[in-house]
Amino acid sequence: MFPVLDLGIPGSKGRSQWRLKVEGLVESPGEWGWEDFSSLPATISVSDFHCVTSWSRLDNRWEGVAFSVIVQLVRPQSQARYVTILCGDGYSTSLPLADLVAEDVLLAYAHDGQELSPQHGGPVRLVVPQKYGYKSAKWVVTLRFTENQELGFWEQRGYSNAADPWTEDRFSR
Ligand SMILES: Nc1nc2c(c(=O)[nH]1)N[C@H]1C(S)=C(S)[C@@H](COP(=O)(O)O)O[C@H]1N2
Ligand SMILES: [Mo]
Prior knowledge:
By secondary structure, this protein is mainly beta. It is 12% helix and 34% strand.
């Protein structure tokens, strides 16, 4: 079983209408539709998923585009240290660029061999296995490269910005 947890707002109209936009402190801002995005090199990564409310879903087989592939294409400017991820349901989160280039961080479009379902963030969601689930944004539409970190939806509401499941770092302090 893979629980669903979100704001309850539908986040996407499907692959044909989906676009990914990259903005902010990058040399080559860009925009991809589904055709172009899905022809980028794909990566498969198996990882566990930990929600801050204490459930975990082990051994997820994610398939998608490594975040580092996008980073190479858009070429961050030297001041860019964070990325804000904006979603189709109004949700957002942000992470240090250094965390996002880890090899297991994907913009995923398939899960356990199936097209990623809308309820789990299809067409495309971020997967950041080393962080609590609220960093794994569903229905990703915009990546904004910034110098200073913009706090995301749950981070503004008291969840830890570090979101480290190994130290059970759940709340900001
Ligand atoms: N766009 C969006 N992404 C989101 C959320 C959300 O509300 N909206 N919830 C987050 C939280 S708190 C968790 S635990 C995971 C849950 O992912 P799942 O519904 O695929 O299990 O999605 C994260 N990504
Ligand atoms: Mo969560």
